Amino acid sequence: MTIFSILDIAGTAVFAISGALAAMHKRFDPFGVVILAIVTAIGGGTLRDVLIGRLPVGWMQDMTYIYVILAATFTAFVFRDKLLRLRKAFFLFDTIGLGLFTITGVELGIQAGLHPLICIILGTMSASFGGVLRDVLSNQVPVIFQKEIYALASIAGGTLFLILLETGWEQDIIYVLTSLLVIVIRLLAVKYDWSLPQMNLSDRE
Amino acid sequence: MTIFSILDIAGTAVFAISGALAAMHKRFDPFGVVILAIVTAIGGGTLRDVLIGRLPVGWMQDMTYIYVILAATFTAFVFRDKLLRLRKAFFLFDTIGLGLFTITGVELGIQAGLHPLICIILGTMSASFGGVLRDVLSNQVPVIFQKEIYALASIAGGTLFLILLETGWEQDIIYVLTSLLVIVIRLLAVKYDWSLPQMNLSDRE
Amino acid sequence: MTIFSILDIAGTAVFAISGALAAMHKRFDPFGVVILAIVTAIGGGTLRDVLIGRLPVGWMQDMTYIYVILAATFTAFVFRDKLLRLRKAFFLFDTIGLGLFTITGVELGIQAGLHPLICIILGTMSASFGGVLRDVLSNQVPVIFQKEIYALASIAGGTLFLILLETGWEQDIIYVLTSLLVIVIRLLAVKYDWSLPQMNLSDRE
Lengths: 205, 205, 205
Known about the structure:
The structure is a homotrimer. Chain A is mainly alpha-helical.
């Protein structure tokens, strides 16, 4: 098992947990919980694979993804009292997923021979799409459209990834470092309340 | 014409009617009605074909789908007074579509050489996606996320389908039996108000 | 550079501006503005390319699209005071995008050997999908589902395109004429308040 699959599957697991938490918070029935966990976990990878023509999509060809999603959802269900009380749990799982899926998205873009800028966009899209689906389906404003520096963290990680590739470092180290960068930026952004200014256009008139 | 195409086209027709009814109920203009009928009818099959890489998607390569959708929408329009007054009509068409598209989704998964569990997921996704699009676009909470045992009926039918395939029975009989199972489970679930327990987590604290 | 690419890229630019305007109107943060501009601009073409199996999708293989989107978004940002005050600006950019993407959608359908009716549907879907995404993500009712003759303009243009192809005229002229037809129909429809009757069904009972 390559470090690529490990990151991709770990990202799948944490997004499944974030989806399950969102669904339990909204009191979906058990099947609703499983469905939202699946959609959140496979959403980004599915979009990524479809856009680059890697079909049938990855999770259909390797059963590990589905087993991991079901196990993660079950875990979230068992520890739901603890996890739902921890207000930061949902946020943490979503953030780890963002970091991991950014890097696997960029990596698959490189393998498909795409331009570096496209790879970064692909990474950002595939890292955030599962969360967008989760938020839309559970009737929340998608996190990516809120104040937090969500997309920026992903773009920064993708950019560092492409830069480090030029250094010739061991690829596994680069994967881990850049995923961590995304996660750390987002955690710090929320902790210290970093945010980009809103477009206060009408106020000025 | 194979029984597979017949089921796929019949599913398309009933979903078109359910989409047209939803649009007329919300007083969309005539083009809005046609568009919602089309989106509901082709949504599931499109997702299915894209995920497994059966491109261009099925309804683009066989005009029967479009003609059937237009005819079904016209029929729904002509009988709108009767159909909109029958509160169960919408529900019935949606349920038949669920049954038929579950089985055609599972069947295409098998043909693509996918794992049985993936086939069931593919069947459930393609059976419910058109309805999700219909509900989102007509500003309803998707049926699949409500109390009724919607996804479970689809999963049960897909599972029975895979089991019966092992028996060596005539495939056409299996198609019909398993589609009927999905339809009957959902009808009974609503009639006797079967439902899965909600996640009443916050209440317990 | 063919006239096809010019129309496709111009459509991308105007949809990017319409997305940026919608985001600034809703006071998204700068990254939200860029993201909504990108999604609006590439949404329709992405759907179109995925449905016909033209993968990786067009904007991933030609950097012009991304550069044009970024430039258009920057322009919208610089002139935001003027553009947001002009109530018709948003509407105008959306309409030009509708006209251009209808024709490029129909053209790619023809190249994929699809039935003329499918080509028109493909053109209409790809012309309106970016706007649907934009409206859903900025929490508006999609324009295509409102009273204005949005889809009809697109269908009329696609139909004229297919008819003129039979005349043997120069293709570039046909492209321009039919795009203009879509734009003019929609502008006139709004100016003179043309609209299709709503389905006033419940009133009659």
